[in-house]
Write the structure tokens for this entry.
Amino acid sequence: MNDGPRSDVDVAKAAVCEEVADFYTPAARLALGRAAGGFLYPQFLTPLELLHSGDRQRQMANAGTNAMQAVQKTASWQVRGMSVPVSERIRRLWELTDAVQKETAARLEAEPPAAVTLSTLPDLLARRPGEAEPDRSFRIFASLAATLADLKGWAAKFAALAELGTGLAGLDTFSYFDALISEMLRPPTGLDAVLGREETIGDDILRLLALVDGTARPEAAPATPATARPLFSLLASAAMPETRAVLTEHAIQLARSNEKFTRRPLAEEIAFVVDLRGRMTRDGTLLGGKETQEALDRRMARALSDQTIDMLMAGTESVGERVLRAVQLHGRIFGEDALRYLETYVAELMGQPKLERTIVPEGQSPRQRIKLLGKLHAALAKSNIAIKTKERLANQVERFQGDQLDQTGLLEKIGGGKGSTAERLLKIVDLCREGAFIEGANADRARTVARELMKRPDFLESYLAGADQKGERAARLKELQKLLVEARIV
């Protein structure tokens, strides 16, 4: 089954019928639904019901221009891009539809279908001696169509099928129910009637994907509509390839829409889009392919613009914090336009005059400023920003951190400040382990101060203070060795 929506032309070209039997294939039923949807769906009819009901076929033939429009649409789609005159294809389709009506009438007259009950279902599904598979299929679908004939609305029809088919879930004979259910769920009105809607499109997509994957638990189904839980239960226990294909198409269509996926803040909406792309990727291929990717790319590009960037930067107090957030976001998003926008935004922020005054927040402590610059440098270093650009920006950040170390005298204050020698050493060790100091001259300065502290006569005594037992002292020394290695001081 195709995993994504196709155009009317593509659907019709995949279903060029030349024999009566061709009309009953899944491809032809899909094309019939596209061409005759204006007649079928307002009456809550499926292509399968039309193909197996003489009354419905006569009704369509007598319903004004419905039949003519369906034939004309199909013919024009099928000859698109070909040298075949559309009139010729129309003539052939009329011949075939007349033959379908005559053959349907003859079959139903020979064996009038009766509505199915749970007690008569086994006899209906049983194989008859010498019966060809197409004849068996027609007989079963004709009886199921008769069963649904007097029911009004998609929900009522689905409920009747679910009641009849529940005991067959997992058996080959459930394929008849799968085919009918899939056609009921194909129009959006059918899906809404049977499954209902979630609060947001994003939630709708996630639920559809869970149903397709078979991970949606029946107990998680909503209480209303009442048909939702039976659908959950069937999909949890039956293969239902046609129904899963239809649900996949609905998920793809929603993913390609323009409405917001969530009602959350913009940053969370962007995160949802990123997660959704991963959720819709199967074996390295995105459901719906290029068109879905382009739709998600457009959505991401709309989310990142001059009109929205301030919302994403809410709560930042300095250029450094904004650049850090933008670089982190750059590593999570996708789409050429969105990525290019963030790269330009970062470059413009880092190109401001007198950046040394705004790169770090005024109100933060020297330690917090140093840590921010170290975190920003690390984010830039591992980013996918163009190599020359990120190297230039990283060098800027390294220089600013060096200036901060000079201006604040952080290392000198720690080295000669209050507290024991061991306590002051561990402050530097913790900063080194956290990656606060950018590798190179800045990190070397910090490690030099740490080594000088370790050389002081009172260091070992202050570090082992309170450890009276030999085993406890050994454990402390072992832990110190581990910390020093992690900080790259030794």
